[in-house]
Structure formats: structure tokens, C-alpha cells
Amino acid sequence: MAILKYFIVVSFTMQYAVTIYAQKETIVPEEGNIRCTYTIKDKRLTGNYNSFYENGVKKSEGRFVNGYRYGKWTVWDSTGRERMERFYKNPFEYERIFPPIPNEGPIPILATNQYPLKYDSNNIIKYAKIDVSDAIWRHKYWKRLSVIENKTLFENKRLLKIFCNLIKEQKAEAYSTEDDRFTTTIKMDTLDIDQAEFIGLDMKEEAVFDINRLIFEYRILGFCPIVKYKGYEGQIFWIYFPDVRKYLGKESVTSNNSFIKTLDDLFIFRDFGSVITKTTANNPMDLPLSKYQRLTSTDEIKQAEIEELNIIEQENNIWISLTR
Fold it and tell me: What CA–CA distance (Å, rounded) separates 137 from 310?
């Protein structure tokens, strides 16, 4: 792995009438495959984003909210020619600005493909079906959510209590901590929630680019609570996210984001802070990031951010390839 050089600029960002201390960085790997400026706030990729080619030409420009593209986004090739311009109303709906959509003739593959936000009878947004052949890029990611950046989830052990009660009431299954493929069920009748300290949450998800809808999105697969309990500290069970969404859709939350009204919304619109701990991308040995090149804790955090940036740039590359 190439040695990374970091150029750090400290800035102040105003959002929701609150001044937040933010760190903006330009990352320049020696091989020159990622050059960008971005902002991480509370372990959320939120704010303006710009990336550049090795020759200095701008590659992309736009804004993120919790890791999803919002508003105007533009992508250029290495000669500076515009290749794609969109306006995102939300993560699932966009208006295509460039290339222009033909007024006549068959609609080409790059025509606007909107996936309207529609809630079902369980008060959750139903996922669009993605066929295997339509997922032209997909990788799985494991992430760690900590208490400090996710008070809504950890306060009063809210999420832990919801999961444990659903398992106790046989409305959801608990799966072994050794099985994040959700096939080996376990019994969870010995945990005293009142005595347990809820200290973290592991999450498994998949990042997918759907060629049919021309949309990139994350699909959460499951969660694994981490607790301190009677001298034990660690994971206690995995729970399958699709099985519990209808219950999370009944749990109200308060948010500055107008789309987020329930705990399910919070996860769908990704209003949580997290750090990548493992990925299937370029990881044939299936190792956690902590095992890469004997990373220090600081290097591990940087590598986690780089993995997030790789996802963004991979989507940018897809946009460019689709307009050739």
C-alpha cells in the first residue's frame, strides 16, 4: 500500500444555525488515483465534495448529506469535457440535466430514471428490486457505529431494547456473532438489558450501482450490538435488518432532515456516524482494515475514509464510462 500524504485545512461549517467544527482534507496517494476535498462531520460524509485527476483537471463536484448525493452533481473526463450532470432531489430521485434527453425517438439508457419515495403499509420505503445482472458494481462493507455520534440510537439503550424485545417476542431471529450471513440462529434469554451497557453497534451493508435505474445506493443487511455485561465486552448477536424494518418504521424520531421521521427513515437516509472496519473490495483474504499493513489506529481511520472515497470515485467512473 502506498504511503499517503495528507494536506489538512481546518474550517468552520454552519448548518442548522449551529457552528460545527469540521475537518476538510485533500488526500493525495502517491499513485494519484484519488485527489479530493471533502468534509467529515460526526463521522458522516456531509458537505461539499470535489475530486481531481492527476493532471489537475476537476473530475467531480457536488454535495453530500450523510454519504448520499444531494443537489447538483457534475462529472468531467480528464480533458475537462462534461460527461454527466444531475440534480438529486433525494438519494432515489434525480433530474438529468446533461446529456440532454432526446425529445424524439426511443429513450436511451441514460434517460432519467426516477424511483419515487413511496411508503408502504408498514410506513417504510420499499426497496426497488435489483436483479443480479443489473448490479454492475457491488461490494459489502462492515461498519462500526459509536455512541458519541449516534445519540438517537444509543440513548436509554433504545435500539438495543428494540432488538432484544423483538427477539424475545419471536418477531425477529437472533443470529450467531460468528454468522453475519444470517443462517445460524441462537437463543437470547440470558441477557439482562438493565444490567448491560450498550457501547457500540456493528453494521453490515452492501453498496450497489443499479444499471437499470442508474442509481447508486446502500442496502443495510444487519446489525450486531456490542455490550459490556458481567465482565464480558463484545458482540452479542446479529439481527437481519429487512426483518425489523416494519417495527423501526413505527419508532418516531426527531431530525433536522425533513425526510426522517422514524428509525427506519434514519437508516435509509443514513443519518448515522460510522467507520468502515472491513470491505470485500480488493480484499481477497477477507481481512479487517486493522490487519492491512499493520495499521496504527490513526492509519486505520484514514484508510476507512479512503474506502468511502473509493466508493464515490467508482460511481464517478461509471458515469464517465456510460457516456463514452
Answer: 12
